[in-house]
Amino acid sequence: MSQTATRNWNELKQDGRRSVPEGLWMRCPSCAGMIYRRQMESNLHVCPECEHHFRISARQRIEQLADPDTFVPLFTELRAKDPLNFTDLKSYPERIKREQIKTGETEGCQAGKCFIKGRPAVLACLDLTFMMGSMGSVVGEKLTRAIELATKENLPVIIVSCSGGARMQEAALSLMQMAKTSAALARHDDAGGLFISVMTDPTTGGVTASFAMLGDFNLAEPKALIGFAGPRVIKQTIRQDLPEGFQRSEFLRERGMIDRVVHRHELRSELARLIDYAGK
Questions:
Q1: Domains of the chain, with CATH numbers?
Q2: Measuring CA to CA, how many Å separate 203 from each of 82, 234, 240, 258, 279?
């Protein structure tokens, strides 16, 4: 436990409290240290001891990146359908409804226009808290419309990926979103548009295999898991031990698949700098 954490813990005991309020402290999954939850949250959800980047929701991501009170959400009327009448342990509509109640969001992506340090942009963020940020028809449609809006208005488009991949409950319909989003980005590129892709932990499956790796600049947060299949599946398939750090941001940067690994504290400034550098 850090000196700051130890001091706060001792202060609680000196106050005569018999128990610590639930949820006040948490254990970092990386360094296993006990950290004060409010301190972690005020530090952009980064561990103050080991710099571990905690996973955050799309709404939290937007609050961190967009200038205050500038984000205007778009395409909020889109809702998922159930054309396949898919049922596993629950029906697909029931699963969607439970996720909406749990998260307060309607889908696994938020998109809109905003300013980032005064630079206008179209920003879309996948939401890991909603069905692991999986890409179904609505997520794909939101991303495509966001890209097309950026093309029409000559704005840079920034997509923050955090996803388990394509949504299995929509089968081939979810896989179609890979081609749709990639085609929209191709048109955006032909029009001279700027696309900055930000990959966070985890970015996997069909998201990695489509739009996430197509950025003019491909950025990633430290130690983010990025790949198509997970390392365990790959190891079982090829029956070989994988290199240390396999599929992590730093590993991919060394091999030229990622342009920069950017700390969350620096991400907002880096996006603004890249927009200026590209003349957008």
A1: 1-54 (no CATH), 55-277 (3.90.226.10)
A2: 25, 16, 23, 13, 28
